[in-house]
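Work Package 4 report. The design task specified in the project plan requires that, given a folded chain encoded as structure tokens, an amino acid be chosen for each position. We show below one input record used in the internal validation round.
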């Protein structure tokens, strides 16, 4: 498939997703019957309304945003310790992130690069974990609500679980996002010590994108397994995880394409455009994760032949 046709397909996919999200707040039960004939989609739409996924996505996006910049501070402050060059990261950001957001992130990275203060590292870790753990705590409550189960664990245990899940989420997603950037450096280093890998070097370079996708899918599997107050089987959660990862990938690419080709955000929000774009992207991320959790809950209900009120 040519690059242009792929971008067009991604753009139209994003348009469908955008209008789908937009209409969720206005579709009544009667309209659902007219528009959607399949019971699965009807159940899913009812769940989105009943469990207030739009509102929860906005709250989670807010906490994700709060955790993003402390995490960025921590990561950039770590670069000098490993003698890493920041240029590949900036190139990747400018290539794949919407231009307004890329400019904002690039400015922050350049101002932070070279700082090796231990206080900066400590602040980055603590602030990122605190904000991200608030987001994962909301996800825990949302998954319990989707499964129609009560939280019986002690509050302290739930908060510790949220903190551990946040740490795992941050580490895995950071590696998954940085792998396409520094994957070539890693592969070249491995090839230097293991010459037999040189024959499959091109394959490894392509595989880093697949590995990145699989890592995000893996961390979502862990989230869907450990977060609820009920242990689910692999076959209960794998489809929701795959769906959430795919939806997030498509919506991210589609949204990036839209922002780069239609400059309405600059006209509407001016200098705040970068923050607004980032917040909307985080909203799509949160909605994708929550939607995957709802799909898992539907599969559990049907497997157990249990009535889950919508």
């Amino acid at each position: 498939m040519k690059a242009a046709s792929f971008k067009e397909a991604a753009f139209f996919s994003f348009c469908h997703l955008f209008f789908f999200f937009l209409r969720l707040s206005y579709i009544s039960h009667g309209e659902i019957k007219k528009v959607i004939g399949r019971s699965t989609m009807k159940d899913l739409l009812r769940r989105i309304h009943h469990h207030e996924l739009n509102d929860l996505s906005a709250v989670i996006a807010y906490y994700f945003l709060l955790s993003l910049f402390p995490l960025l501070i921590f990561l950039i402050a770590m670069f000098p310790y490993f003698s890493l060059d920041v240029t590949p990261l900036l190139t990747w950001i400018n290539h794949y992130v919407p231009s307004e957001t890329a400019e904002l992130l690039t400015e922050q990275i350049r101002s932070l690069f070279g700082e090796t203060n231990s206080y900066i590292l400590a602040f980055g870790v603590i602030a990122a974990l605190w904000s991200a753990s608030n987001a994962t705590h909301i996800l825990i409550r949302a998954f319990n609500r989707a499964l129609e189960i009560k939280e019986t664990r002690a509050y302290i245990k739930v908060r510790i679980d949220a903190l551990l899940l946040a740490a795992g989420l941050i580490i895995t997603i950071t590696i998954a996002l940085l792998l396409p950037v520094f994957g070539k450096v890693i592969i070249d280093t491995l090839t230097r010590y293991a010459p037999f890998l040189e024959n499959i070097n091109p394959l490894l370079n392509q595989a880093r994108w697949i590995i990145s996708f699989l890592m995000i899918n893996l961390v979502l599997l862990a989230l869907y397994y450990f977060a609820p107050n009920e242990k689910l089987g692999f076959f209960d959660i794998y489809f929701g995880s795959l769906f959430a990862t795919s939806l997030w990938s498509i919506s991210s690419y589609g949204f990036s394409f839209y922002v780069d080709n239609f400059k309405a955000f600059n006209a509407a929000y001016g200098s705040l455009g970068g923050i607004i774009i980032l917040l909307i992207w985080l909203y799509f991320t949160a909605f994708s994760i929550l939607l995957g959790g709802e799909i898992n809950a539907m599969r559990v209900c049907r497997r157990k032949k249990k009535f889950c009120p919508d």
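Residues 1-10, 24-37 have pLDDT under 50 and may be disordered. Validation will be extended to a larger panel in the next phase.
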